[in-house]
Structures are given as structure tokens and as C-alpha cells.
Amino acid sequence: MKINKEINCTECENQCDIFDIIKTQNDLLNKVKPIHVTFKKNDIICKQGNTVTHGIYIVSGTAKLYIEGLNNRNIILYILKPHNYVGLLSFFETPRYFYSVVALEQCKVCMVDVQFIKQLYRDNHLFLCRLNEAFGKSVASIMQKIITLNQKNIRGRFADSLLYLSQLNKNLSFNLILTRKELGELCAISEENIVRLLAEFKNEKIIDVQKKQITILDETLLRKISEVG
Amino acid sequence: MKINKEINCTECENQCDIFDIIKTQNDLLNKVKPIHVTFKKNDIICKQGNTVTHGIYIVSGTAKLYIEGLNNRNIILYILKPHNYVGLLSFFETPRYFYSVVALEQCKVCMVDVQFIKQLYRDNHLFLCRLNEAFGKSVASIMQKIITLNQKNIRGRFADSLLYLSQLNKNLSFNLILTRKELGELCAISEENIVRLLAEFKNEKIIDVQKKQITILDETLLRKISEVG
DNA sequence: CGCGAGCTTGACGTTGTTCAACTAGAGTGG
DNA sequence: CCACTCTAGTTGAACAACGTCAAGCTCGCG
User: Fold this and answer.
1) Å between B79 CA and C29 C1'?
2) Is the Cβ pair B93, A132 closer than 8 Å?
3) A37 and A17 inside one domain
């Protein structure tokens, strides 16, 4: 369920780093040919194992990036919001995605042919620097994730994810787009225990939960729980 | 406990990718100024949190690359052998190491000033490609590690590590440089359970264990255990 | 109105960690 | 040459943490 549309970068509602770099060069501007594609909730934006054909940039909406594990159990690595690159980790010579991305709500993404991206990072130092910077951050956060998932107990992991979501929404109160099951996949906890933890933290007045609306009441305590693990 | 020595690439016993790239350009060859440094067993080659000052390449010996977790519990991500870059994951604008590297046996490494490396990837497309390729592989293997550590039981994780070590040594029989504790850090298992698993697998005739010498007797079964998780 | 997905709760069992005690071997100094 | 100590390895028992199973609930949507 997609709607494709060719677009002109100069008219784009959400101009990205790439435009920022190529805007002064007419030859590049003419070569980009980006496409805007709209995905509905639960649509697959890219699938683990498929070849990387485009650089993908989130223009609007929210998506989950996850790796498919054993027995249909997934691990969500990040929630993607506008200004995030999807293809980032796979730009570099790895021909296939090693993760999947699925829309959590209606998403508009911008797709640029990977050959163009490659030419850009071949020729353009600034682009390369930006990409590398983002890449480095990604890897650092994955490393952190390994520690978190492995060495913290469920309360610590759960606290981590709440803080992550709060930071993502830039607000202590936020609407949880994820289902309980998906929230579980974000912190590697079973769905049932997520439910129990939500109730537990609510009881302890650390958070408030009204259906999908979550409010962090005691951020300090939450950080402490996350650290102690 | 280090011995530093300036070296000339053309005389190096273990010429690396970088030399491969710069050997035809005299201006670069004159600018490299690599240093060979020898580390003894248990010496710290680089420390999590320190700023990245050099590109580091393993010339001889073996080292462990690990992230320092909570309560002094570490997770070993890779065992490094000659031809591996140490600094790889931190080249890209991340100013600090987010992992540590420690020698498992006497190690000789080649250190090149990070400014030279940066200049090289700024100017040299081939170098960039090689680096990115290696980078991509690293990330893919870390992703795999997340799945493994999170979704496999200890028998599966243990089998994984045995296969990894066998592949690393290019032999079904190999001398385990790691202590039981370190082997535990490689697959996120407690030292005690490592001991039990070694005995268990030996009993089941999957492997043979003589002190530090480990021999895989039934590779097929080991792979099955690793897959089933 | 009924169905199904998402959510909730309690009981139960497994897995793997932790603790404590013990052994073997290597290195040290009197 | 023998006590010593220190590290690495080993073993058993107890326990805690989580996941799993089963059952029931709720709410939105066709």
C-alpha cells in the first residue's frame, strides 16, 4: 500500500542533509531524482535480507527498526523519526539489509537511488563526514544496547526504554505508539512482564499509565533504576 | 611494558592494507611514520573512554576486544588476530573508544597517527572502500551477536563461541588462549557454567577437552546446537 | 452483535546466576 | 626443599529472575 511520487528537492517539506549538501551544485540537483513513498501502518519499508537499492530518509511518521531473531522473536533497535536515515548502516558495501523497518504509523519516506548516494560519498567530503558521524553514533548506541540487554535486569531495561521513548518524543509525557508486545521487543522482555512492569511502576508512582498515554512522574528515580540495572 | 620502534613500511614483516594503498605514492610513504609497539600479555592496548589517537593494526599476537559493562562484567566482542584493525569502529568522528582491547598473549601492533588515517580516507577512495567494507562486516557481526546473546540458551551460545574460536584458529582443534572466565565473557555465561558446559559437551562426545586444548569432535551436532539455540 | 487483536493476571517451571567450599598447580621466599 | 600463597579451575546446592502457559477481559470495528 504505497503511493509513489517524484519530487523536487527544492520544494520538499522536510529538506534533508543530502539536499543541504547538493543544493549549490546544479548538476547534482538534476541527478538526484528522489521519490517520496507513503507507507501505511504495519507496512514493510525494508526487509532483512533484501538488497539495498535506495537510501531511505524518514520525511514524516514513525517506524521501528528491528532485527529478526529466532522463533519469530524480534529485537527493536531504534524507533525512527523524521531526519533519520534508514539505510544508513547498510550503505557501506554490505549489499543486504541486516534488519527490517516497519511503519508504526503512516510514514512518508524519501528514497534516493543507492548509486547516487555512493557517487556522493565517493566525491563529497562533507557528505562523507556527516554519514560517518551518524554511523559512529549508531554503532555506539548498539554497543550500549548490548550491555543493556545483557547485564541489566528487566526493571533496568524497562526504565531504559521509557527514558528512550521520552527522549524521542522530547517530552516526559508521550503517546506510546508501540503495542505492549513491541515495547517488549524494544527491551527484550516478554509481553506479560511488560504489563506487570507498567502496573508496578504505576503503583510506585514512577510513571502514570492511561492506556497508551505514558507520563514519567519521577525521572530521577527512573534514571537510578536504569543505572543500578 | 611496551617497546616502541619506528619502522619503515617497505621492510615490515606484515604489510597491511594501508601500505598496499600508499606504496605507489612517495609523498604518502614519507608521511606515514608508523610505530611498532609490543605489548605483553594482559597489557591494555586501548582503553574504553580514551581518545582515539592512532589507527592500530595487529601485526602479530592475539588480543581481546570487549566492552566494559556493569559491575565489572565485560562482554568480549571479538578476538583480534593479525590483519585486524583495532581502531576501526572508532575512526569515524567518534572521538573516544567505546571498547577496550587487551593483549591475550604478546602482541606486536602498528600504530599510525589518526590524523594521517583521516587524511587518507579524506583523499583516497580505495582506502575508504576497504575501510567501509570492514566496517560493514563488523556491524553485521555485532548485530548477530545481539541476537545470539539474547535469544539463545547457554548451550547455543557456548556452541557458537566454540565454532567461532575454531574458525578463528582455522582448525577443529585449537589451544584456548582464554581463561574460563574470559570464555564466559565471550558468550555471556558465568565462569561456573562454562566449566559445567565443557564437561557436559565432553561427556556427550561433542568436544574433547585437555586443559586448554579443545577439539571439536562433532561439528555437525555443534552447529545444530548453535542453530536450535 | 460477534469477532479478534491487544491487554491483563495468576500459577508454574526452567534457566542460569550466585555462593561457598574445595582442588591443582605455579611461583616465591625462607 | 618445603611451606605459603595466589590464581585458575571445579563442584554442589540454593535461589531468584523471567519466560511460558492458560484463561479471561476489553474495546474497536466490520
Assistant:
1) 38
2) yes
3) yes
Beta bridge partners of B168: none
* Grid cell in block for residue A182: 513491541
DSSP string covering B74-109, please?
EEEEEEE-TT-BSSGGG-SS--B-SSEEEESS-EEE
Q: Residue B125's pLDDT is what?
A: 75
**Probe site for chain B from A72, A132, A141, A142 (most B CB atoms < 10 A):** A132
Question: What CATH number is associated with residue A222?
Answer: 1.10.10.10
Q: How far is the CA of A98 from the C1' of D28 (A)?
A: 36
Does A11 have pLDDT greater than 90? no
State whether residue B72 sits within 8 Å of chain A by CB: no
Among B103, B127, B149, residue at a domain's last position: B149
For residues A19 and A47, state if they share a domain.
yes
Q: State the smallest CA–CA distance between residue B76 and chain A in angstroms.
A: 11
Residues B205 and B135 in one domain: no
Cα-only R_g, chain A: 19
A191-220 residue pLDDT tens = 999 999 999 999 999 999 998 999 999 999
Q: Residue B182: which domain range?
A: 152-228
- Indicate whether B120 and B223 sit together in one domain: no
Residue with grid cell 521520552, as numbered in its chain: A166
DSSP string across B180-224 = HHHHHHHHT--HHHHHHHHHHHHHTTSEEEETTEEEES-HHHHHH
Helix (H, G, I), strand (E, B) or coil at A66: strand
Largest interatomic CA distance in chain A: 61
